[in-house]
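Collaborator request, handled under Task 6.
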Amino acid sequence: MDKPASVYTSFMTTSNYKGFGVSILALSLLVLIGCAGGRRPVLYPNAHFHAVGEAQARTDVDRCLRSAKDFGAPVYGGTDVARDTAAGGAIGGAAAGAWGLVRNDEHDAGNRALAGAAAGGAAGLVRGALQVGKPSRTFRGFVNRCLSERGYDVIG
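Structure tokens returned to the collaborator:
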């Protein structure tokens, strides 16, 4: 007699779970689109800011952003979405597979490893996607220094 499918395995193969996965993917894409906008530095309204005015401060920010790009500072960090996805999948698969072996369920360890890899990969994908719209540390450092040398205080 065949061993009955575990509740876990039955859940993984139902159409409800597949619909849930599609919903998570759609939500992740919406988050990615919402976070993809460019970010500008926030300036503290110090004496220099008040002396030059908001319009000149905006122009100086634009010049520093352009200088950072012109001098080759990588604009965006976190562009290794594929790497984050693969790392999340490997970690999730290893952890869930190990859990299946610890529970002394060799037959279900493979299913758990696959489910863990899928969950870990999804987590890595979302993490990488959230990082895509953020400027790299080098780019932010370049722009902050440029603005600092012009007399501004960058607070965010």
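The cover message to the collaborator said: "The first helix runs from residue 7 to 13. Residues 85 and 109 are 21 Å apart (CA to CA). Please let us know whether this matches your experimental observations."
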